[in-house]
Amino acid sequence: MREQIQKFIFGNDDCIEKKAVFWNMLFSVLSALQSAIMIMLVTRVDGTENAGILSIAYASAYLMYTVGTYGVRNFHATDSRNMYTYKDYKKVRLLSCGVMMICSVAYCLSKAYEGYKLSIVMLVCLLKLEEAFEDLYHGELQRAGRLDVAGRLGTIRLGISYIVFGAVLIIRRDLIEALVCVIIVGLAIVLLTRSVANSFRITNINEKSKFNFMKLLMACFPLFVMSFLSIYISNSPKYAIDLYLSEKEQAYYAIISMPVFTINLLSSIIYRPKLLYMAELWNLNDKDTFRKIIWSQIGNIFLISIVAMGGGLTIGMRVLELIYGVSLNSLKKEFAVLLIGGGVVAIYNLLSACLTIIRKQVFMLIISILVMVLATVISNPIVQYAGLTGASYLYLILMMGEMISIFLILVVYLYRKNQCNAVNDLQ
Questions:
Q1: Angle 30-36-39 (CA atoms, 0-180°, nearest 5)?
Q2: What's the rounded mean pLDDT across residues 254-270?
Q3: For residue range 303-336, what is the model confidence (pLDDT) as tens digits?
Q4: How far apart, in whole angstroms, are the C-alpha atoms of residue 49 and residue 323?
Q5: Which pLDDT does position 264 carry in this prediction?
Q6: Are 346 and 261 a contacting pair, CB within 8 Å?
Q7: 132-186 residue pLDDT tens
Q8: d(Cα 71, Cα 359) in Å, to the nearest integer?
Q9: What is the arithmetic mean of pLDDT over 370-380?
Q10: Distance CA 249, CA 346 (A)
């Protein structure tokens, strides 16, 4: 039995890259659908009001999750030169996850959450804390060339978690109990993932360096701030809805925004397995191939977005109504605007990963700060005045601001690098 389990987790060495794509795709699908599946179950079993509470809980927990992961995953997975050790990444993650929980408590106090709502928000934050540790182990497995193993383990955890959540919710009709059970089950599988990652850990000549920890903290700080602000910006409509609209309207916004994540999910499935290869191209100074891959991936995202919009506007809303058991006829315009925003976000995430690969992530910081300021200024007035319609347009405006800015910076930087190389060749 033990050998069969090990064989399933580790597989064999045949076609590892194809298996990595498959298992990463399956895990990414289940991960991206986490809030959608849970909100759907709560809507069906416990009503739209509790679904709205769970929605804002996830919006808050995803913000805290960026503190826990500290923007390290792409940096870790693309560390093809092994400049930092597994121990370095682990130290950073322990620190960031500790800060995450402190921030979670402070956030709930600042929002004056209490009673039932406070319990739900904190439990979802604990769930994301587990996932922040899991992300560390997945990053090491990916760096070791075994993204397939990470995908298998992540798929197992999420699959079992959804079954447990649904069963407990239906039997007990208690959202708090369901979340507690999911956390317990998830912890067991995350501990298993840690053991597997330890067997693949990479060592190098910098193993005993006393300065790597601080260097890694400083290197990833812009990534952390950018990812934190990015989540804050993308969830700004939800935070404003939490202030001015009802829990039911929060649930409706969550429902019509689900297809947005579908576009981003499908896009990430295509480009994420190529990140390590792109990092190697950059290290080899093969900028022509590097640029071609970027444009190719942008084209893929555009095609995915067109298909998603067509399907969403024709049958998508009806499917959502059947799944969630609510009427969405009055929200067609808002739905279309959010679909456009989904394609914009997918391109933005791709370009962010590219800046990380070329280790110029610091340029993303100023973009995120500026758009965050914009979100802080306009979010509450727009949602207070225009309700869910205002929330959907707010989302599109903020995402367009981020995507266009980072696109221009990346293009200009790559052009200037080529110019400099051309001058050096002539000399």
A1: 130
A2: 82
A3: 888 888 888 888 888 999 999 989 998 998 999 9
A4: 17
A5: 78
A6: no
A7: 999 999 999 988 888 889 999 999 999 999 999 999 999 999 999 999 999 999 9
A8: 13
A9: 94
A10: 25
Residue with tokens 């800046």: 355
Location of structure tokens 């969830």? 235
The residue assigned the tokens 């500790």 is 98
Q: How far is CA 381 from CA 1, 365, 384, in A?
A: 60, 25, 5
Query: To 5 degrees, how large is the angle CA 121–CA 25–CA 237?
Result: 35
Contact 131, 64 (CB under 8 A): no
Which of 333, 316, 312, 322 lies closest to 388 in space, CA to CA? 333
Q: What's the rounded Cα separation, in Å, for the pair 320 and 163?
A: 21
Q: Which of 340, 311, 343, 315 lies closest to 328 in space, CA to CA?
A: 315
What are the phi and psi torsion angles at 284 (to 5°)? -85, 0
Question: 202 vs 120, 140, 252, 314, 356, CA distance in Å?
Answer: 38, 8, 46, 49, 21
